[in-house]
């Protein structure tokens, strides 16, 4: 009789756990990329464009539409502008761009501010309602073609683009400052020049406001290019580098969205000039802006319009108090009224925030001229 050998008990086969773990990690990465795909140009710069762009295109699209030729061109030009080195000039100038309904009541004050600094500045005036009458020879011949502008509407952005287009024709213009007819200078020209030319960031006000004056004005029709979480609010008065001035003119994708669909859920018109630039730069170059405007305005009264200064308000103490401010304050427009206070950092150091101020009534001109030298002295 043949004796059968006892049955051998084989140990259970080891599962290739490392393969399972690797597959799980790959799935998690793909799901994450699907849910949170890169949405900012600056994020794509972290990796080579040959990796970032095809990967995004491979992902399933949600609500994606085919972009127009103008939009494709706009995106490509913006990408190239952000990637190019900052331009330089042997004779750099500041372009002071005035957006006004008509005549500028403070031309004599600006003349005093600019006196003796020829060749270091340019002036451009966009008067949209009536031809301005100039009281200073510095402003004569500085008017540009203008169309009707309705405050708060997209025509404000059109006027800003028109000013930038004219100012960019001068290759020496390196910084571009948008000012209103009620703006006045707070410092000497040398101080302003060194403040702006000494940094490579743009001063664009930008913050997130969940209230009715912020995201409450967001429209679902701005999808898919602009999402609600990208929507921002800020002041329209800016001081920007030449690179960012070019970028604004090149943008057609986001500008078109604002032009067509900038309207809130409650049907009131969106205040385009308070949202377009903050939203644009929050999406394409958030690290390139300071998140505050160098033009001071007082919203402490909590009204629809900021405080306006009459002749009786103007004093040395008022101007020096404004020039001493070194922190920005943003307050949300919802019921919570959340206050965000941050230091103004100029090249990493805490610094005074403001170079200009508004809103001053024309009647304040004589008082401002009398104390100009004292309040602008360092």
Structure overview:
It is a single-pass type II membrane protein. Pfam families: Branch (PF02485). It is found in: Membrane. α5 runs parallel beside α12, α6 crosses α8 (242-250) and α11 packs across α12. The protein has one domain (93-376). Helices cover 34% and strands 14% of the residues. The protein contains twelve helices and 13 strands. The protein has 378 residues and is of the alpha/beta class. The longest helix has 19 residues, at 17-35. It is globular, with a radius of gyration of 27 Å. Strands 2-1-3-6 form a four-stranded mixed sheet, sandwiched between helices. A three-stranded mixed sheet has the order 4-13-8.
What strand order characterises the main sheet? 2-1-3-6
Our estimate of the beta-strand percent is 5-15%
Number of strands: 13
Give the oligomeric state: single chain
Series of secondary-structure elements, N-terminal to C-terminal: HHHHEHEHEEHEEHHHEEHEEEEEH
Number of individual domains: 1
CA radius of gyration: 27 Å
Name the poorly predicted regions.
1-5, 7-13, 34-62
Overall 3D form = globular
Largest sheet: 4 strands, mixed
Which structural class fits the helix and strand makeup? alpha/beta
